[in-house]
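Sample intake — Alpha/beta hydrolase
Collected from: Thiobacillus denitrificans
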Amino acid sequence: QGKDDPRLTAFASTLARAGFAVLTPDLAGFRQLRVRPSDAREIADAFAWLSSRPELAPGGRAGLFAFSYSVGPALLAALEDDIREQVRFILGVGGYHDLPRAMRFFTTGWFEQEGKWHALTPDDTGKMVLLHASLDYLANGRDGEIFDRMVAQRMRDSHADLSPLAAELSAEAHAVYALAANPDPARFP
């Protein structure tokens, strides 16, 4: 749902009521469940626009607040030459510091805390993001169409059997699908 996610709009509204100027940019890749290096540039551009508005950011004072996946691109955005001197703070919630651990969690639901392993039911959205994020790196264009159908089917029905579609994937794309579909943390690379 991108910037229209009810949780995000409720949070942004609360910040606005507290007197903060809030901009939740509509990042193209997020709505398509795609992640790209250009996400950081889009965030930097939104920040530059907001911080250039004296009525919204007196003295150009502004910061970045990001959740989950967007913490990484927000940190990279803050390093962009054209905004780095204006970024007064960065606040990240639910970001990741270890990509393999993050991928293990959103594919299998397993995570380690204080030396003990725990499991939660993984959110299927993370798996769909993994599939979509890989599209730009797959050689076979037909794989992209199949991944799109998989994502659409799973978004309609979270228990949909994707194995018939998976059987149509190239070996390269099937490896990505196998990573996303794997529920066993012991089999995680």
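Post-analysis note: The longest strand covers residues 87-93.
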